[in-house]
Amino acid sequence: MRMQFWKSAVEDIYRDDHSAQPISAELWRAVRKHTLTRRWMLRIISEREKDLEDKAYRNLRELEDYGENTQSSLLYLLLETLGVKNVHADHAASHIGKAQGILTCLRATPYNSSRRKVYLPMDICMLHGASQEDFIRGSRDQNVRDVIYDIASQAHVHLQHARSFSENVPHAAMPAFLQTVVLEDYLQRVRKADFDVFHPSLQKRNPMLPLQLYLRSWRKIY
């Protein structure tokens, strides 16, 4: 019902018939001011509906598609809000969104496992002989680490691809891409933990993140 509400709300917004619901009203103002694309909003909602199925991703491609349809779609909307229309920025947003989708899944693994839920790609788990029960038990065996390594490596590849467009991405797009600082921070920390996703250090915040974000923002790099 919640998903249907937002689908209807988005359709109403683009018919210039928004409701009095506060978030819907603000979204209507944003659409009017920045000419936001309806397709990106509906794609986020449609992809989020799949969360209701409560199933693990069958393969890494499915997880990447989830990141593209949710995180990347949101980045496309942010770029429109910033007035950026640039194909290189769009390519970077696509890869950043996929990296963020992958790493969000990894970061949530300890929490989901504590609820006896495992969403990591099944093909990679099978490749390394790691069962869902291994994650539910919080196993720190090598085969579990190998699963995390493979998934994290794909996120790293997407992050590198995104940065390969940086010379051609307008400076105006940088505020939309600063989450790469957080993504890179998690990749570095999981690497230091030898890809043990249950390591206590990964549950702590990095107090240097605000400074790193400021420096990247000041240098206009992502």
From TrEMBL:
<keyword id="KW-0472">Membrane</keyword>
<dbReference type="GO" id="GO:0032981">
    <property type="term" value="P:mitochondrial respiratory chain complex I assembly"/>
</dbReference>
<keyword id="KW-0999">Mitochondrion inner membrane</keyword>
<dbReference type="InterPro" id="IPR008949">
    <property type="entry name" value="Isoprenoid_synthase_dom_sf"/>
</dbReference>
<comment type="similarity">
    <text>Belongs to the NDUFAF6 family.</text>
</comment>
<dbReference type="GO" id="GO:0005743">
    <property type="term" value="C:mitochondrial inner membrane"/>
</dbReference>
<comment type="function">
    <text>Involved in the assembly of mitochondrial NADH:ubiquinone oxidoreductase complex (complex I) at early stages. May play a role in the biogenesis of complex I subunit MT-ND1.</text>
</comment>
<dbReference type="Pfam" id="PF00494">
    <property type="entry name" value="SQS_PSY"/>
</dbReference>
<protein>
    <recommendedName>
        <fullName>NADH dehydrogenase (ubiquinone) complex I, assembly factor 6</fullName>
    </recommendedName>
</protein>
<keyword id="KW-0809">Transit peptide</keyword>
<dbReference type="InterPro" id="IPR002060">
    <property type="entry name" value="Squ/phyt_synthse"/>
</dbReference>
<keyword id="KW-0496">Mitochondrion</keyword>
